[in-house]
Design the sequence.
């Protein structure tokens, strides 16, 4: 059972990593990369390393994702500062969802 | 097409080159001599119920100090790049500009949720690093939970200004105190970062395992204030 779960989680991680590479929307790609970390923390928990799992969940999937989203928001603002801030609307919503993953 | 073929060939060559290494990996059935010593004598020597903590804080304490140094250097770099005096005033200008356009407020749901969750998250973070020697978790994990509590607060209220002097002071004092505790171990006990200069106490109690709880409290405060500083430096009101 546990072996099966590990294989399943490994496949989910692979799907998330490949999705992060190929997704056109940058915010979706960042979220996919964060989901890899989230599933990795579950794998650590199954393998009996709760200390590492906590670190992975908190730093890998939460803080790193937020730092990426902040940076992306800054880049967007820099490149579109002359236009209306319409593009920012798309990248603020996932931030709010992201911190609930904690 | 040619380029892609070369890439595939290179990947296959690398895989073949490392193939013997992968084949030689066999699942270890037993522990190495050093690991056996940690597992057998660790609880007795240091009195920490969580063996991982006694390895991270004491046996490999110097590595943890190195990690804290790495995090400190990274924070200093981020802060120096993003919050130099010029960009601060620039940021202020941007914000006032945004004010006239109409600032995007955090939603009602987020504001209420953040206000409700903030004290619980702070409490949980403190619990994690206070109980680091008893249950899974420790200074780093607790510090990150503290930082995420502040992150939630920053999301919900864009106008919120954190007290930077207090953050810097907490970081500096906890970092210096960590090294001071290490030196105390050097003078009063077996070596640098040896937590045994305080009484080991009763096994499994909150006040036990010598100075390990003190070290984890200091690491938790340091990591929490550093990561809060990074997030605060990176955010931009949108």
Sequence:
């Amino acid at each position: 059972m546990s072996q099966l779960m590990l294989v399943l989680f490994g496949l989910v991680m692979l799907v998330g990593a490949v999705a992060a590479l190929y997704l056109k929307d940058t915010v979706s790609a960042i979220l996919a990369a964060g989901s890899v970390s989230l599933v990795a923390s579950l794998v650590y928990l199954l393998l009996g390393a709760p200390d590492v799992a906590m670190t992975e969940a908190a730093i890998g999937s939460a803080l790193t994702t937020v730092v990426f989203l902040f940076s992306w928001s800054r880049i967007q603002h820099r490149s579109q500062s002359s236009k209306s801030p319409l593009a920012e609307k798309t990248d603020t919503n996932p931030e709010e969802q992201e911190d609930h993953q904690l | 097409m040619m380029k892609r073929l070369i890439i595939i060939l290179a990947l296959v060559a690398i895989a073949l080159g490392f193939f013997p290494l992968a084949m030689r990996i066999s699942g270890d059935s037993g522990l190495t001599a050093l690991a056996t010593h940690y597992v057998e004598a660790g609880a007795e020597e240091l009195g920490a119920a969580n063996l991982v903590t006694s390895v991270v804080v004491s046996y490999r304490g110097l590595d943890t100090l190195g990690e804290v140094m790495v995090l400190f250097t990274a924070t200093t770099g981020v802060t120096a790049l993003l919050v130099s005096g010029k960009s601060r005033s620039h940021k202020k200008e941007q914000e006032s500009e945004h004010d006239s356009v109409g600032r995007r407020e955090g939603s009602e749901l987020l504001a209420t949720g953040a206000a409700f969750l903030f004290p619980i998250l702070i409490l949980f973070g403190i619990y994690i690093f206070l109980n680091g020697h008893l249950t899974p978790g420790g200074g780093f994990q607790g510090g990150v939970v503290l930082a995420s509590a502040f992150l939630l607060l920053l999301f919900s209220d864009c106008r919120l200004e954190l007290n930077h002097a207090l953050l810097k002071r907490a970081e500096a004092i906890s970092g210096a105190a960590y090294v001071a505790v290490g030196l105390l171990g050097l003078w009063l006990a077996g070596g640098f970062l040896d937590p045994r200069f305080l009484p080991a106490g009763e096994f499994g109690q909150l006040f036990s395992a010598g100075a390990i709880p003190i070290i984890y409290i200091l690491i938790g405060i340091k990591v929490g204030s550093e990561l809060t500083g990074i997030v605060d430096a990176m955010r931009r009101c949108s």
Q: What stands out?
A: Residues 41 and 54 of chain A are 7 Å apart (CA to CA).
